[in-house]
Structures are given as C-alpha cells and as structure tokens.
Amino acid sequence: MSTTPEPPVSLVVPADMSYVRLARLVVSSLAADLRFTFEQIEDLRIATDELLSALITSSVPGTPVHIGLTVTGTVIALRARALATGAVQLDPLAAQIVATTVATFSVSIDADHAIVELRSHAPEPAPVA
After folding, report:
1. What is each CA distance from 26 to 17, 76, 122, in whole angstroms?
2. What local confidence, expressed as pLDDT, does residue 127 receive?
3. Is residue 118 classed exposed, middle or buried when 0-12, 13-18 and 19+ CB atoms within 10 A define those classes?
4. Which helix (H) or strand (E) segment is 110 a member of?
5. Which of 105, 104, 103, 51 is nearest to 82 (CA)?
C-alpha cells in the first residue's frame, strides 16, 4: 500500500445527534476499502460514535460540525471540530472504550472550537509466500 495520502474526505453536518450515524457510515466505508476486518470496522464505528456524540453534546446546537477523514497507507484518521459551549466531556467509560478500539485518540479545545481526533490502522497484508 502507498504511504501517499489519498485525497481527504470532508463532511459537514449540523451539531445534532441524528447525524452521527452518517459519519459512522462514511468512516466504515473508508475502513472497508482499506480491508479492515469486520471487528476493526465495528471498533472504529464505536469510537466514531462515542467521540462525535461527546463533541456534539458540547457544541452549540445546530452549528456545523466539520469532519475530516484522511487515509494514508493503512491508516485512517478522523478530525472533527465544532463551535463549543465548553470542554468536550468524555466520560471515563467512554474514554476506556475508545482507547481499546482505536490506535490513538484525543479531545481538545482550540479557541472556541472543540476538537476530537482518532487514528486507526488496517491490518498489514499477509506476506506473500
């Protein structure tokens, strides 16, 4: 697989929980294209759901949530940001779930925007015998 980044995928949705499933569908589609296993896709969907739900909960209702997805080699990365009413509150159980489902994740504030990020890796292709 190439380590050259693919063109980024951008999605802008209102800060409304009903749009989290749309982001999950896009993320899982990209992961399937990278040959993630079924279990890895489910893990990625769970992490996406937890992080975006926390982001939207801390966002100004109805304002845009900007979601960017990048694929480089076997790595998929998500970065989402939204106008915040305060810090993103990821409860300890959700943080533990996310930590076990993706390679890395973060939650932060930049000026008046809340940001969530995650990275996950597809399995390495099996060596050719």
Report:
1. 16, 12, 16
2. 65
3. buried
4. strand 104-110
5. 51
83-91 mean pLDDT: 89
Arithmetic mean of pLDDT over the chain: 91
Q: What is the pLDDT of residue 125?
A: 65
In whole angstroms, give the CA distance from residue 60 to residue 10: 20
- Residue 73 confidence (pLDDT) above 90: no
Label residue 43 by pLDDT band (50, 70, 90). very high
**Highest CATH level, class, for 9-121:** alpha beta
Determine contact, residues 46/39, Cβ cutoff 8 Å. Answer: no
Three-point CA angle 72, 64, 45, nearest 5°: 45
The full set of domain ranges for the chain reads 9-121
Write the burial class of residue 50 (CB in 10 Å: 0-12 exposed, 13-18 middle, 19+ buried).
Answer: buried
